[in-house]
Amino acid sequence: MTLAIPPREVDILIVGAGFAGLYMLHRAREIGLVAQVLEAAPSVGGTWYHNRYPGARVDIQSMEYSFSFSEELQQEWRWSERYAPQPELLRYANHVADRFGLRDGIRLNTRVTGAAFDEAANRWRVQTEAGGAWTARFLVMASGPLSAPNVPDFKGLASFAGPVYHTAQWPHEPVDFTGLRVGVVGTGSSAVQAIPLIARQARELAVFQRTAAYAVPAHNGPLDRDFEARIKADYAGFRERNRRMPAGFGSEQPPNPNSALGAAPAEREAAFEARWRIGGFSFLGSYRDIMLDERANALAAEFVRGKIRRIVRDPETARLLSPAQTIGCKRLCVDSGYYETYNRANVKLVDVSRHPIDAISPGGLATGGRSYEFDALVLATGFDAMTGTLMRLDLRGRKGLRIQDKWRAGPRNYLGLMIAGFPNLFNVAGPGSTSAFTNVIVSIEHHGNWIADCIRHLDAQGRPTIEATETAETAWIEHVTETASRTVYLTCNSWYLGANIPGKPRMFMPLVGFPPYADKCADVARNGYEGFVLG
Ligand code: NAP
Questions:
Q1: Rounded Cα distance, 332 and 279, in Å
Q2: What is the mean pLDDT of residues 419-424?
Q3: Between the CA of residue 289 and those of 61, 286, 316, 333, 354, what are the distances in Å?
Q4: How far does CA 393 lie from the centroid of its chain?
Q5: How far is CA 521 from CA 20, 105, 146, 434, in A?
Q6: Which atom of ligand 1 lies closest to the CA of 381?
Q7: Which atom of ligand 1 lies closest to the CA of 146?
Q8: SS3 content of the chain, % helix, strand, coil (to 5)
Q9: How far is the CA of 190 from the centre of ligand 1 (A)?
């Protein structure tokens, strides 16, 4: 006879031990909760554990892409480069876990497969792949907006004779492409970082491009120690200034308050050039209206296309690499030698925009009536973003309501934080919040603090549950779409819209503008959690 193991009980169960899970655990303990993190991977680090393809690094400056909650932490940690590489970010996540004594609250190698809300007990019942069971009053999904890899349903993919790598599931032992013919599918941020390094090793590299990407230079290098000292002299002030920026970072290069349309051509060229030299996302702030007005956007886009024409020697390759869509509509890429890579004799670009990849064969792939042979295949094909992780779970709210039914037409929630029908479940940096449009660590800290304050409020009021109302949810989703419609974000097919996944409902998922969002969340809490029902 086997005895059923009783579920383990905690106050708060947190799914994921990336930056969001680590911070939520820290905050939960600070407010006196018994907290448990369950993490599928054998390590903390989330994104920075899995995305270890060649060239993987953050594309927001490390002095900004880091926790602000501890003055000691931000003073003692020293980044080596302007944009930290993946191994260093993983070390940082491990350091945070040790520094704040979090490890004993994290169970690794434990994949959550589902959770159901028990209405009689007002508790979440959570199952894991290995058959473990937990109950918790609060459930926090800290599983990341970009963590469910998208593997396209290419016919014959399983028949490919060589290794197939996805950038978001990269092996943990070194991958050596020396002497090999390599095919890369995709030209988003991951590909833009990986391609220059793969090209240096491979004998031949074929890049299969469906949509050309805009990339601006990172100008990465060793961290400027004077800059570090200046920031550390008033780190709290720097963080505060960043939190007042639309994307929660970039206060050192605030957007130019003028219109691109009002500037004389030579002045405009100089402004774009100045931002190009700074590098990174600051380029989109060359003028205030680049992300608001398609005519202003077209001027910035043409500037980048001009750069591509000057960098890439073969005119046909330069033409194919030149994006037609609005710049910044798909997430801008930040590169180190991406366009230059196409000047190498061993690299070729294959346009698959008009002829999709028909089939993968044991020796390569076929498209547009031509076949291409390679020994190794890299899928840099991105993620089922923002909803993928939750939609792959057996997640059930009141009356057994399945998340797949609740979100059939797209992700509905209030403040991006809570879902009607799913009491006491919080989603960190997910759809309906500013997550993907910010330095995500700013969003993570904001959400962690809001959730901790909310739980404290419930306890102070003796209320067991909190749940978003459907009315508040409907108004919120309209607000997210309406905010996006005032920008250029609806002018292209992006993962923000779910457009990269066949059959996924088109709904604009992230919210533009961190400061008004943070104000709104604070107002809601101050006004007794309006838009929520407290049980
Ligand atoms: P992505 O931006 O979604 O790019 C995926 C690429 O694969 C696109 O070029 C896409 O083409 C192509 N693709 C997808 N399915 C395809 C198919 N069936 N046939 C041909 N091509 C196909 O994914 P990602 O590069 O992994 O980046 C995702 C996000 O992660 C980024 O936007 C960013 O937010 C984050 N990220 C950040 C960093 C960083 O901080 N440095 C690095 C990597 C990723 P289409 O454009 O035509 O769909």
A1: 12
A2: 98
A3: 23, 9, 31, 19, 32
A4: 19
A5: 18, 28, 23, 12
A6: 7
A7: 30
A8: 35, 20, 45
A9: 6
Pocket flag, ligand 1, residue 440 (CB < 6 Å): no
Q: What is the whole-number distance in angstroms between the Cα of residue 463 and the centre of ligand 1?
A: 43
Question: DSSP secondary-structure letter at 254?
Answer: P
Say if ligand 1 is within 6 A of residue 58 CB.
Answer: yes
Which ligand 1 atom is nearest residue 211's CA?
47
Which ligand 1 atom minimizes the distance to the CA of 83? Answer: 41
Ligand 1 atom 45: residue of nearest CA: 211
Task: Name the residue of 189, 336, 441, 495 to mutate for ligand 1: max ligand atoms within 8 A of Cβ.
Answer: 189
Q: Is 325 in the pocket of ligand 1 (CB under 6 A)?
A: no
Arithmetic mean of pLDDT, 313-324: 98
**C-alpha 360 chain-centroid distance:** 29
| 358 pLDDT tier (thresholds 50, 70, 90) | confident
10 Å Cβ neighbour count for 70? 14
pTM: 0.97
The identity of residue 200, as a single letter, is R
Q: Is 59 exposed, middle or buried (0-12, 13-18, 19+ CB in 10 A)?
A: buried
Model confidence pLDDT, tens digit, residues 98-126: 999 999 999 999 999 999 999 999 999 99
CA of 77 to the centre of ligand 1 (A): 31
Question: Could you tell me the pLDDT band of residue 7, with boundaries at 50, 70 and 90?
Answer: confident
Length of the chain: 535
Structure confidence at residue 270 (pLDDT): 98
Sequence-ordered strand ranges (E) for 95-251: 106-107, 112-118, 123-128, 133-141, 164-166, 181-185, 204-209, 215-217
Residue pLDDT, tens place only, 470-490: 999 999 999 999 999 999 999
Report the residue among 52, 66, 210 best suited for mutation to probe ligand 1: largest number of ligand atoms under 8 A from its CB. 210
Q: Ligand 1 atom 2: the closest Cα is on which residue?
A: 188
Q: How confident is the model at residue 280 (pLDDT cuts 50, 70, 90)?
A: very high
- CA 57 to ligand 1: nearest atom: 41
Residue 205 near residue 347 (C-beta atoms within 8 A): yes
pLDDT of residue 6: 77
Q: Contact at 8 Å (CB) between 535 and 465?
A: yes
- Using CA atoms, how far apart are residues 486 and 470, in angstroms rounded to an integer? 25
Residue 3 has a pLDDT of: 56
Dump pLDDT digits (tens) for 170-224: 999 999 999 999 999 999 999 999 999 999 999 999 999 999 999 999 999 999 9
With a cut of 90, say whether residue 5 has pLDDT above it: no
- How far is the CA of 255 from the CAs of 249, 298, 302, in angstroms? 11, 17, 19
Going by CA atoms, what residue is nearest to atom 24 of ligand 1? Answer: 382
